[in-house]
Structure of N-acetyltransferase domain-containing protein:
Amino acid sequence: MSEEELIDNTEQGRFELHRDEHLVGWLYYTRLRPNRYALRHTEVEAGHQHQGVASAMIRRVFDEIRTREGTVTAICPFVADFVSRTSTYDDLIDPRHPGYPDRATAEAAQRKTTS
């Protein structure tokens, strides 16, 4: 099994997942007060797609935010889809600013803002 490390690259505003010292994916966020993370966009290196990188990264990010006693607002369609399929991280979803409930709603909102 490969060695994974999650790095919070605050300069670029993203969590980065490294496997065997190679950057394989990242999740852009905006940190809002008091301790809320708006998870905005997930990307996976082309050579690592369809290998569970995004899901592994989101689990690691949620676990990290939990240790920081933070909350999450799901903006990214992939994050919204992940959250809609599990109750494991329900306690992290910000009750006042939950973000989007599922992938379709998040994608529709993105299309609306880019058109």
